[in-house]
Amino acid sequence: MNRIYLQLTGAVLAVCVVSAALLGVSDSLTRDRIAALVAGYTAKLRGEALVGTEHGTEVTFGEPRMVGEFEVYDGTQNGTPVGSVFSVTTMKGYSGEIAFVIGVAPDGQTLTGIRVARHTETPGLGANAAEVRYGETDPWFCAQFANLTVEQVRLRKDDPAGALDGITGATITSRAIADRAQEALAAYQAALGTENEPEVAP
Amino acid sequence: MSESGTIEAPAAALAVEPIPTLGQDVARGLWTDNPILVLMLGLCPTLAVTTSIRNGFSMGAATFGVLLGSNVVISLVKDFIPKQIRIPCYIVVIATFVTLADQAIAASSRELYMALGIFIKLIVVNCIILGRAEAFASRNTVWMSARDGIVMGLGFTCVLVVLGGLRELLGVGTLMGVPVTPQAFQPSLIMILPAGGFAGLALLIAGMNAINRRRSA
């Protein structure tokens, strides 16, 4: 009677060991490639957040610098600085984490746009945050953030000063992105302010 | 194999079922044994992703690949897995396969992965995969199991596309992202919410039953 349990356990163990081995091999083969693709995609998004999808690839970036808590990349297009980008995440999305890239104009006062880098929102609803409408080139929800000052980075329904339209049927997703963008821009401006303040003489 | 309780069964039990032609198999997967409308398997992902034709097709394509692969693999190893623990073993095989597919797609194209990524992980709990593994792949040859995977995957994808099209058209007013309804038409958002999924699916099943009834009348 005991022998059969040993056999069955052994069989399940064997299946699991083979599976684990296969997955280990697959992971080691693909890990670097996946990381490279993710990095390349994020770099592409940075350009798009500054100048839009059409000209996104024309923007070049140098080494990042720290502004407050953010790792900031400065973008240059054809020799002229077009702004700075940094990545933020919010956990207040409908289905969890949303990671997006924020582009700030060179004067530090307005946004140039955002791009959604990573999310697990519902397809057809929250996922429309990255949706490009038929006939357009930029995702409409992200393109709304262009030329907004920090007070305007809120949903219209949440704040009379807000200038953002939410995604139909996906208020939570829209609000998560808008609020986080406003918070991040305010923090960025505050960090810039302290950077530029002359040191107080003792 | 199920045991017959009666003694006069032996002749029937020994009779070999005629092997269906490829055409009959396709008709089986698309209509008579359609995994969603007839077998009622995989309803969760069906309701969740049919918010547009593109999403429905993406899920269908991803499931098709996994179904084909897992049917083949399970048919290959069926003789090595003891009957009593076949279900957990099948699940491990399927989950491994899905993870491998997920990594393969992630390593090939970021755009493709962004489009399909959410769906791939959902396939592990898609009852169609385990259902076909248990009902078919564990008892048939590799070739027949592959064919079963193909026709079931086709049937699944077709229903996803039709239901996705229905919900997208009525809920957003577009097809494949292209606006096709006149200005006067007000899309009803509920069609792309879960309630609309249930309603749309019910309409499809009722429609299929009506057609079948008319045919046999």
Q: What structural class should be given to the helix and strand makeup of chain A?
A: alpha+beta
Count of DSSP helices of chain A? 3
Number of helices of chain B: 9
Q: Give the amount of beta strand of chain A, in percent.
A: 15-25%
Number of strands of chain B: 2
Gyration radius from CA atoms of chain B, angstroms: 19 Å
Order of strands side by side in the largest beta sheet of chain B? Answer: 1-2
Shape of chain B, please?
Answer: globular
Q: What is the string of SSEs of chain A from the N terminus onward?
A: HEEEEEEHH
Q: Kindly, what is the distance between the CA atoms of the first and last residues of chain B, rounded to a whole number of angstroms?
A: 35 Å
Unreliably modeled segments of chain A: none
Name the helicity range of chain A. 25-40%
How would you describe what is shown here?
The complex is a heterodimer of chains A (202) and B (217). In chain A, 35% of the residues are buried. Chain A has 202 residues and is an alpha+beta fold. Helix content of chain A is 40%, strand content 22%. In chain A, strands 1, 2, 3, 4, 5 and 6 form a 6-stranded antiparallel β-sheet that branches. Chain A has 3 helices and 6 strands, in the order αββββββαα. Chain A starts with a helix and ends in a 6-residue tail after the last helix. The longest helix of chain A is centred in the first third of the chain and has 50 residues, at 2-51. Chain B is mainly α and 217 residues long. In chain B, 69% of the residues lie in helices and 2% in strands. Chain B is built from 9 helices and 2 strands. Chain B has helices at residues 10-14, 22-32, 43-49, 53-77, 86-108, 110-123, 127-137, 142-171, 194-216; strands at 174-175, 178-179. Chain B has a two-stranded antiparallel sheet with strand order 1-2. In chain B, β1 and β2 form a beta hairpin. The model of chain B is unreliable at 1-6 (pLDDT under 50). Chains A and B meet through α1 of A and α5, α6 and β2 of B.
